[in-house]
Amino acid sequence: MKEVVIVTSGENEYKIGTVLSAKISELGEYQCAVWEENKDYNANKVTMTSDNHIIYIGPVQDAKALYETGSITWEYKTERMRYGWLGTRAVIIVDPKFDFYKLGKNLETGALGFAFGGPIGAAFALGAKRLIGRRTKTTELTDKRGSLQCYKTLIEKFLAEDLNKFMGD
């Protein structure tokens, strides 16, 4: 059974990592663990080898080294959301300046900030529009820009279309 370590950069990313881990584990082919960057990952990364598959969620320091140098191949990329990998290291990231709720308001008024493509884009746009009325005080405190919904959209696309490619299956 192949092992996957999901490394997260913050609280919201940890929530997404937990969801991703559960979905990957359901497939029965992989064993997953979710590590926080500043706790588990930094303490254990010296024991990791190039055979270990790692998925970075959010602006993890080691992930930045991949995408800031331009060495990563982006499998999916929009202006504000993207994922891709280099070998056994994958990155899933949402621009922290992206405001999912503002996008939904723009959809309701007919102004769309950027183009969506395919069924994932359509689902994302519909989700943005539906979430506008559901924004609660709790959501505002923990996810002011809707990054959780953006990450959920990205991991669904990653699981459906690219997990097997990343894992080398």
Description:
The structure is a single chain. 49% of the residues lie in helices and 21% in strands. With 169 residues, it is α/β, with parallel strands linked by helices. Strands 2-1-3-6-5-4 form a 6-stranded mixed beta sheet, with helices on both faces. β4 and β5 form a beta hairpin. About 16% of the residues have low confidence.
Blueprint of the fold:
Elements: E1 2-8, H1 11-26, E2 30-36, H2 37-44, E3 53-57, H3 61-68, E4 73-77, E5 81-86, E6 89-94, H4 100-109, H5 118-131, H6 137-142, H7 147-167
Parallel strand pairs: 1-2, 1-3, 3-6
Antiparallel strand pairs: 4-5, 5-6
Helix pairs in contact: 1-7, 4-5, 5-7
- Tally of strands: 6
Largest sheet, described in full? 6 strands, mixed
Helix content: 40-55%
Task: Tell me the Rg in angstroms.
Answer: 16 Å
In what range is the share of β-strand residues?
15-25%
Uncertain ranges: 106-120, 131-142
The 3D shape can be described as globular
Which class do the helix and strand fractions yield?
alpha/beta
How far from one another are the termini? Answer: 12 Å
Average pLDDT reading: 78
Count of individual helical segments: 7
Summarize the helix and strand pattern as letters: EHEHEHEEEHHHH
Query: Reading side by side through the largest sheet, how are the strands ordered?
Result: 2-1-3-6-5-4
Brief synopsis:
Helix content is 49%, strand content 21%. It has 169 residues and is of the alpha/beta class.
Keywords, separated by commas or semicolons:
globular, alpha/beta, 169 residues, 6-stranded mixed beta sheet
